Amino acid sequence: MTREDFISQVEREQEALRGFLLALCCGNKSDADDLAQDTLVKAYLSSAGYQDKGRFRSWLFKIAHNTFLNHKASMRTMESIDETRTLVSNAAADAPFEHQDLFLALRTLPPKERSAITLFYLSGYSIKEIATITETSEDAVKKQLSRGRDKLREQLKIEN
User: Fold this and answer.
1) How many CB atoms lie within 10 A of CB 160?
2) What is the count of structural domains for the chain?
3) Does a structural domain hold residue 117?
């Protein structure tokens, strides 16, 4: 892949990448931007190995997902929405964000469940594609989705 091809592909997928990482980072724009930058650097450095067999977006999201998992230690998982509300003050830049409760609830999920939920519901990937991106089995993705939905339902107080 040439430098120009890489730049062209990134320009097409940049917004989707930022949206994916913003969801994984539960609305924290600063963390999402940092991860996006790390992802793009890693993608560029490994772009010579890109085989153009699949979608560039899937390849890029796989790198983003791995980058997120590598940084998850600094992104503490919260026990409840109330705990996250305590952490996120009303003066935070992201406080008026319209999906804040969802992002607060996503923050309570373990990273793998958060990734599966984000890829499936917010990015529209199939279970098979998610398994490829996250390098797990389809059964594992189904379990992560099920557990994640159950936890979100509980956190958001949604009835079946």
Assistant:
1) 3
2) 1
3) yes
